[in-house]
Amino acid sequence: MLEVVDLHKAYGQHEVLRGVSLAVRPGTIHGLVGANGAGKTTLINCLYGLETGFTGVIRAAAGGGSVRECTGLVPYEPHFYPRLTGREYVEFCLQTRRRAVPDLRPWNQLLDLPLDQYADEYSAGMKKKLALLAVLVQDFAYLILDEPFNGLDLEANLLLKEILKRLRERGTGLLLTSHILGTLTEVADEASVLVSGRVQRHYTAAEFGTLEADLLAALHGEKLAHLRTLL
Ligand SMILES: Nc1ncnc2c1ncn2[C@@H]1O[C@H](COP(=O)(O)OP(=O)(O)OP(=O)(O)O)[C@@H](O)[C@H]1O
Asked: Is the ipTM of this complex over 0.85?
C-alpha cells in the first residue's frame, strides 16, 4: 500500500497541503479530485519524492522500499528532451532505472505512436501516450497518473480506461487525478476530494452518486446561489 499520512507542504507563506492523508491499495484505483490549485500535483510530487520540505509520513508498505522504486509516474506535463525520439525517451526512462529495454512493439500496437519521430514534436495527446508507454512497459506495483486523459482523443480515452481496469485486475494500485468526473467515477473504486489542501471527504464507489452535487456545493456554493437568481 502507498500511504500518505498528515502531509503538510508550503511554498513560502502559502500552505498548499494541510494535513493530507490517503492510501492507494493494491488492485484498486484511487481517484484524486480537486479544483485547479487544490494541491493535487503538489501531493503527487511529494509522494514521488519530487518535492522536499514537507512534513508527514510517506511510505510504500509493500516490501518496505521507497515509493519511487515500486511506482511509475505519468506527470501532468511530461518533459521530453529535444532531439530524443519516442523510442529513445522510453529507453532513457528504463536505463535510468537500470532496467532492460523490452520490445516496445506489443504495447505500441495499442498506442500507435511514431516511435522514431522526435518526442518533443509530438502532439499533446501523443506526449501523454508516450509517457504512458514508458510506465506500461515496466512492471510497477503502483502507478500515479496525473490527468492521464488530458489531450487524449476518444479512441485513446476508451483504450486507457480499459488498460487501467486490466492493470487493477492484475493487482496494480493506481492513483489517478482527473478533472473529467464521469471518467474518474467510471473507473475508480474510491476517491478523495481535495479542497484547499485538505481531504474534504473520502468517497467509496457506492457513494459516487452524490459526488458531483457535493462538489458543486463545495466548490461553487456562492456561484450556484447567484446562478439561481439568473436562471
Ligand atoms: N513550485 C511552486 N512554487 C510556488 N507555488 C507553487 C509551486 N507549485 C505549486 N504551487 C502552488 O500550489 C498550489 C497548488 O498547486 P498544484 O499544482 O498542486 O494544484 P493542482 O490541484 O494540481 O491544480 P491543477 O488542477 O490546476 O493542476 C497553487 O496555488 C500553486 O500556485
From this structure: yes
Domains along the sequence of the chain with CATH: 2-75+140-230 (3.40.50.300)
pLDDT tens, 144-193? 999 999 888 898 999 999 999 999 999 999 999 988 888 899 999 999 99
Residue nearest to atom 12 of ligand 1 (CA): 16
Atom of ligand 1 nearest to the CA of 35: 25
Q: Name the residue of 9, 16, 198 whose CB sits within 8 Å of the most ligand 1 atoms, as the mutation to test its pocket.
A: 16
Q: Which residue intervals of 75-123 are DSSP H helices? A: 86-96, 105-111
Question: What are the pLDDT digits (tens) for 115-151?
Answer: 999 999 999 999 999 999 999 999 899 999 999 998 8
Report CA(39)–ligand 1 centroid distance (Å).
6
CA separation for the pair 227, 231 (Å, rounded): 6
Using CA atoms, how far apart are residues 177 and 135, in angstroms rounded to an integer? 16
Q: How far apart are CA 25 and CA 2, in angstroms?
A: 7
Share of the chain above pLDDT 70, in %: 98
H/E stretch holding 199 reads strand 198-204
Q: Report the C-alpha gap between 216 and 225 in whole angstroms.
A: 11
Distance from Cα 98 to the centre of ligand 1, integer Å: 31
Name the residue at shortest CA distance from atom 16 of ligand 1. Answer: 39
* The predicted structure's pLDDT at residue 56: 95
Block residue for cell numbers 479544483: 35
Distances (CA, A) of 63 to 60, 103, 164: 8, 28, 23
